[in-house]
Amino acid sequence: MEIDRPLPNPMTPEAKPYWDGLREQKLMLPKCGACGHVFWYPRVACPRCHARSIGWIQSKGRGTLHAFEIGYQSFNKAFKVPTPYVLAMVELAEGPRMLSNLINVEADPRKLTCDMPVEVVFSKLTDEVTLPLFQPAGR
Amino acid sequence: MANLRDLSNVACIVGVDESDEMGTLPHKSQLSLHVEAVTNAVRDAGLKVSDVDGIFTAGQHSPATIGEALGITARHVDGTTVGGCSFIIMVGHAVAALHHGLCDVAVISHGESGRSQVGVSPRRDTAIPGQFEAPYGFGPAPTMFGLITTRHMHRYGTTLEQWAQVAVSTRKWAALNPKALRREPLTVEDVLKARPVVYPFTVLNICLVTDAGGAVVLTRADRARDTAKKPVYVRGLGEGTEHVSLTQMKDLTFSEATRISGDKAFRMAGVGPTDFQHIMLYDAFTSGPPIMLESLGIAKRGEGVRFFEEGRSTPGGSLPINTNGGGLSYTHTGMYGIFPIIEAARQLRGECGPRQVPNLRTSLVNGMGGMLSAAGTLVLSNEA
């Protein structure tokens, strides 16, 4: 199948457990071993208490649509997902927010509302890269 | 102990100007836009380029490159780059440098081939956007600022019609500015029915993309009395940064960087957020200025858009906003922040003809960098 999106580049060493987890259909999040803060994106020190003991937890993959947009054109030659598509900021139940796409939904602003419940869907692009996309919860 | 107010009114903007041309300029490199803007602004001040000994610039060129192109050997340089508001922030840096004698004549320069891309090279660390944003189609600013906008609509019930009023108000000012690129009349319906780019934005909710330069010259207040034009005093200044990636912004509907920069500038100037008769805000998107008014404490949260909807911001209104026609209708190169400073200085000098705000004493300039990520605020006055 043709890859319809830009592959993540670069894939940083700090994010290796995240990309490794996705290959096994697990959404992994960094968690501070000192203060317990679950955060996004991966980094070497906790952004709250600055401890360096960063561990990882598996997210339940549920959250809410914090904000959204509908793309009526592609802004990158390598992004070939058919228009219109939904650009999403998801707030995970564990706390962090991440950017993704909302799929399996009509890309119509009248059908979408901020704070609607969403759940993760794993989308394998290559043997190395699986992306976490989201869909309305309970589909 | 250091006191912020020690920097109030110690330096003045004494020269401002744009490049010789603005718009679509495939025949000019970015460096030429810098050189045109600086030489024009220095002439406006009644000074010589050789008087300049402090160079401030942001973006693709280092201040050393600008100095070399102008044939200046600088003794103070600053290249702080935190997005489009960098030039606003640099006014503060220049005031501090002048006050402490690090330089005597400071120039802040901008030149960007935003439309024609002559000599533009993308060079930055893409670890976060390349890894966690681009795979989903995120990239240019409209794919980010829309998130701020839909969250605001959800939280406060703001509507597409209300955002469109910002474009309409700004276009009314552009019609009065011969240098504005888009001057034809505009209605709310025109904005709503224009080509959709990324919901909630049609193309008319998004700034222009142009080629242009701009420059601002500053010197200490004692020396400013001898320059060609009426000096514009920098009475208050402030800067702040919060995030870069939007996932790290605490509240999408409120800019903490903007609040911090405003609080500092107002405190230094000894003014309150409602003490202005003229405001210049960074309008990359129609939803930006209302959210900036809210973050600065000028409007209640969720109510910034009323300034535009009720006509207060328009020609003849009680609080003129973006009187040059803004990034939406006058010019927007990519890093727009030099241009609102230029307009505020011209308004305070009384040079603006049909768009002149009458009896103006104090003007506010506020701009963002990135997606409300960084901010700079200036309180400018034509009296010490």
Give a brief outline of the structure.
By secondary structure, chain A is mainly beta.
Question: What report would you give on this structure?
Answer:
The complex is a heterodimer of chains A (139) and B (384). Chain A is mainly beta and 139 residues long. Chain A has one helix at residues 16-23; strands spanning 28-32, 54-58, 62-71, 85-92, 97-102, 117-124, 130-136. In chain A, the strands form two sheets. In chain A, strands 5-4-3-6-7 form a five-stranded antiparallel β-sheet. Chain A has a two-stranded antiparallel ribbon with strand order 1-2. Chain A is globular, with a radius of gyration of 16 Å. With 384 residues, chain B is an alpha/beta fold. Chain B has a single domain, classed as 3-Layer(aba) Sandwich (Peroxisomal Thiolase, Chain A, domain 1), CATH 3.40.47. In chain B, strands 3-2-4-7-1-8-11-10-9 form a nine-stranded mixed β-sheet, with helices on both faces. A two-stranded antiparallel sheet of chain B has the order 5-6. In chain B, strand 10 (362-369) and strand 11 form a beta hairpin. The longest helix of chain B is centred in the N-terminal third of the chain and has 16 residues, at 30-45. The mean pLDDT of chain B is 97. Chain A binds chain B through residues 5-12, 15, 40-41, 66-76, 79, 81, 84-85, 87-89, 96-101, 109, 113-115, 131, 133, and chain B through 126-128, 130-140, 142-143, 146-148, 150-151, 154-155, 196-200, 245-247, 252. Strand 3 (62-71) of chain A pairs antiparallel with strand 5 (196-199) of chain B, so a sheet runs across the interface.
- Biggest sheet architecture of chain A: 5 strands, antiparallel
Which fold does the CATH topology of chain B refer to?
Answer: Peroxisomal Thiolase, Chain A, domain 1
Q: Report the radius of gyration of chain B as a whole number of Å.
A: 19 Å
- The stretches of 5 or more residues of chain A where confidence is low (pLDDT under 50) are none
Radius of gyration of chain A: 16 Å
Sheet having the most strands of chain B = 9 strands, mixed
Q: What is the rounded distance between the termini of chain B?
A: 24 Å
Shape of chain A: globular
Shape of chain B: globular
Instruction: Give the beta-strand count of chain B.
Output: 11
pLDDT average of chain A, as an integer?
97
N-to-C order of helices and strands of chain B: EHEHEHEHHHHEEEHEHEHHHHEE
The side-by-side strand order for the widest beta sheet of chain A comes to: 5-4-3-6-7
Low-confidence stretches of chain B: none
- The strand order across the widest sheet of chain B is 3-2-4-7-1-8-11-10-9
Number of strands of chain A: 7
Taken as a percent bin, the fraction of beta residues of chain A is 35-45%
CATH architecture of chain B: 3-Layer(aba) Sandwich
* Largest interface: pair, residues per side: A-B, 41 and 32 residues
